[in-house]
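Can't paste images in this forum, so I'm doing it all in text. The chain is below; anyone willing to post the predicted structure tokens underneath?
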Amino acid sequence: MSDLESSIDWYTRLFGRLPDARAGDEVLWEIDEHAWVFIEPNAARAGAGRITFAVSGLDTLLERLAARGVEHDPIETYSNGVRHVNVPDPDGNAIAFAEPPEGASADPRSAGTDA
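Text version of the structure:
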């Protein structure tokens, strides 16, 4: 991150809450029982990050983000029916959300199963 404080503000709006922890210069949000997202000051690598979250209810999520002042790129729909949107952070890191087609699970553990 080129500007840690403005990034903390942006990610706080993205996740809808303050960070869950801080360890030195690292600022962390717990996004699942075994998954954390962290940011740190590092101007040399700012803008080089990429992460995609599998979600359901993409439109509702984007409405909540817009209400918090978080903008997004246009939604793309892939040939397999997945809807994908980029939500770039202030440094241009590629934060994205992908919603599987109706009837498919957003849980990647169910890919390739009949679950």
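Confidence is low (pLDDT under 50) at residues 111-115. The first strand starts at residue 21 and ends at 23.
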